[in-house]
Design a protein that fits this description.
292 residues; seven-stranded mixed β-sheet; single chain; 10 helices; two-stranded antiparallel sheet
């Protein structure tokens, strides 16, 4: 009972914040930036360690510039995500442009579902709105695979936020069941896989170098795509200006079984690293990284 009350209060509070215009939200972002970076110093030591390892050739001042830009972006990410609770499709499309969705729908035309592999770069939450721009397959399911948060209140809040644009949130332990059900119903779908987290299993099958560190990496997205015969896209995000995003679906393969084992995963990390080096401020540097 108490948990449900807390969830209702939290949802109501965030919803009221989401009603603010973007200008007011970015003013709030400035306050969050000051608190998280200057006062709380949220995971600052982790961010600095990761940045220094990724860019050993950069000077201290260059790294501090990236650091400040990162915490400004992180604050923007939070308010932009909350805004999804109430933003209209028309207003959202003024801030987000989707490219490459024709290639996704071409796969749907052939009866082939898709997998979108992406990292914690730019605002990955916008992927849930991709279905709003489909023209030939408006009924297609756009989903996000997630790991439930320890806090049930926050977990359910983020599910509501992510599903507010028509996306479907599926716990990673249930994804195969969902994909099989969709296939049996002949329902086209594309699910987003956050593939740059550390694998929970220490004996990962693949180690590779990413951002100047060699570490175990997750291969689950590739394994599922092979099993289901999904076309695989890299979801590339760009931020040409504050409040403006471009989300591009870049085809890796429409025949995953034809590629060597782990090649899809390798290509994903190569493409993600290119994105991060294009604008390092937009990567989630506060994630724990595996050591060499």
């Amino acid at each position: 009972m108490i948990g449900n009350t807390l969830q209702a209060i939290a949802y109501a509070a965030f919803y009221l914040v989401s009603l603010l215009p973007y200008r007011a939200l970015y003013a709030l972002s400035g306050v969050l930036y000051f608190f998280t970076y200057r006062v709380a110093r949220y995971r600052l030591s982790t961010a600095r360690r990761n940045m220094a390892a990724a860019f050993p050739g950069k000077s201290r001042e260059e790294l501090r510039r990236i650091e400040r830009g990162f915490y400004r972006w992180l604050s923007d990410y939070f308010v932009e995500t909350v805004k999804l609770m109430s933003v209209s499709r028309e207003e959202l499309m003024r801030h987000v442009e989707f490219r490459g969705t024709e290639a996704v729908e071409d796969c749907f035309d052939r009866g082939q579902a898709c997998a979108g592999i992406l990292g914690h770069y730019c605002n990955w939450e916008f992927l849930s709105a991709a279905g709003k721009v489909f023209t030939r397959h408006k009924e297609a399911v756009v989903g996000l695979i997630y790991a439930p948060l320890p806090s049930k209140t926050l977990d359910r809040l983020f599910i509501k936020i992510r599903q507010s644009m028509g996306g479907v949130c599926v716990p990673k332990r249930d994804i195969l069941r969902y994909l099989t059900s969709f296939r049996n119903q002949n329902l086209m779908n594309i699910f987003g896989y956050m593939a740059d987290q550390r694998p929970q299993c220490p004996n990962s099958q693949l180690r590779l170098t990413f951002l100047n560190r060699t570490a175990n990496v997750m291969t689950g997205a590739e394994r599922i795509a092979r099993k289901m015969g999904n076309a695989v896209f890299y979801v590339d995000m760009e931020r040409p200006g504050r409040g403006r995003y471009v989300c591009t679906f870049r085809l890796i393969t429409d025949n995953p079984s034809s590629m060597p084992r782990h090649e899809i995963t390798r290509r994903f990390f190569e493409m993600l690293e290119q994105s991060v080096r294009r604008d390092p401020c937009l990567y989630l540097w506060t994630m724990d990284k595996a050591e060499n």
